[in-house]
Amino acid sequence: MGQRTAIVIGGGIGGLTAAVALDRRGWSVTVLERAAALEPVGAGIGLAPNAQRALDAIDAGDAVRAMAAWQAAGEIRLPGGRRLARTDNGAAVRRFGGPVVIAHRAALIGLLAARLPEGAIRTRAATELVDAGDPVQGGRPARVRIKGAEGGEPDEELTADLVVAADGIHSAVRRALFPGHPEPRYAGFTTWRFVAPAPAHPYTAHETWGPGSLWGTVPLHDGRVYAYAAAAVPPRGRAADGERAELLRRFGDWHHPVPSLLAAVDPAAILRNDVRSAAAPPPAFHRGRVALLGDAVHPMAPNLGQGGCQAIEDAVVLAHEAAPDADLGAALAAYTRQRMPRTMDVVRRSERIGRLTTWRSRPACALRAALMAASARLAPDLALRSLDGIADWRPPAATYASGARGTRTVELPEESE
Fold first, then answer.
1. Residue 175 dihedral angles phi and psi, to the nearest 5°
2. How far is it, in rounded angstroms, from Cα 14 to Cα 16?
3. Number of domains in the chain
4. Is 329 exposed, middle or buried (0-12, 13-18, 19+ CB in 10 A)?
5. How far apart are the C-alpha atoms of 400 and 397, rounded to whole Å?
6. At residue 413, does pLDDT exceed 80?
């Protein structure tokens, strides 16, 4: 038998982690990314200890920990600046074995891409699934089609022993595998995210809760700031005068450093996304020779900071089960068996926290603030308990990073501030 081949559809964090993990397990891997390049996305990502331990399996955990900037306390506030509670990253270390690392997504993408062999990533590769294949020994391979460019290039078909679909929340592969499965549903709120220069005056990392809205400010290791906001608004909205103007209307009179960050950000750098969550678990996380991963199979609200973390876990578990000599059908069934209950539990728990951000009435918001303040006094680690059974997860095997091919330097396109 020759070396087994895998195609990963999607060059995001989950897809690249899967590609690196499979490469380290001895697979020949090709990543197909529809964009023209692995673009730097102007937003941050929280990597909890569970994701860091998963990345240890591919020798990337320490590089991620080196990105940590915020190691001290943060605050939970009201829009006028009143502090409700203090948060302590040290408490997360004591409870879960490590802090939450806030990394720039572009830095993480570059770190993962550098761990793949030269030529493993193909961009401008809009891909569709043609045949999921048959995973039995000697069964037909999976087939994908790379659509020809508008200039008239012909379509190209590729076959593989395994296809990993990491093609995001609107996954075309998921729809092809399970055409009757309900699409992800709107979670009731929309988010905005951006990275901006640090404000001139000192500030404390914080998350601030207002009526039907939320704002967070966290430093990045390169000196810039990652800011995120959420508001309970109808889906599919866009501001006619731009998203910075929309944020100024909603958050411009909130406490420092919110106005300073909005003044400093490049309007083109603001990302707006409706939050969608899995409406129901699919029949399985695989079919034929195809495995679904990350947002393609279990999109979730961001309120536990676990969307990317769970995708990273998926990737490492899949590679662990899919050893080069493993029965692929059994490996994929084991992947579904391990990942479906865990990820759908995280989906439900994230949804419950997310609903709190949609409270708008004055009595409800006053009750929420009182509960936050009381819990900070009586049970300082109460907020961390929402991550019990999540952030303390460990990968199913010791590291297999010893087969590493080394790393390369991957330069991403420049992004504006």
1. -65, -35
2. 6
3. 1
4. middle
5. 8
6. no
Q: Residue holding tokens 């010791």?
A: 398
Helices 49-56 and 89-96, axial angle in degrees (round to 10): 60
Range of the domain at 166: 5-184+277-403
Name every residue whose Cβ is closer than 8 Å to that of residue 159 and which is 6 or more positions away in sequence: 5, 141, 142, 143
Residue ranges in 141-224 assigned as alpha helix (H):
172-177
Structure tokens at 92: 């997360």
Question: Does residue 236 lie within any of the structural domains?
Answer: no
Cα–Cα distance measured from residue 85 to residue 74, given in angstroms and rounded to the nearest whole number:
9
CATH classification of the domain holding 355: 3.50.50.60
Q: pTM (2 decimals)?
A: 0.93
Do 144 and 128 meet the contact criterion of CB atoms below 8 Å apart? yes
The answer to whether the beta carbons of residues 318 and 296 sit under 8 Å apart is no
Tokens representing 235 are 């889906």
pLDDT tens for 381-402 read 777 888 999 999 999 875 565 4
- Tell which residue, 14, 78, 18, 24, has the closest CA to residue 47: 14
Phi, psi of 5 (to 5 degrees): -115, 145
Distance of CA 410 to the CA centre of its chain: 20
**C-alpha distances in angstroms, 230 versus 190, 235, 243, 272, 350?**
5, 12, 12, 9, 14
What digits encode the pLDDT tens for the residues 340-355?
999 999 999 999 999 9
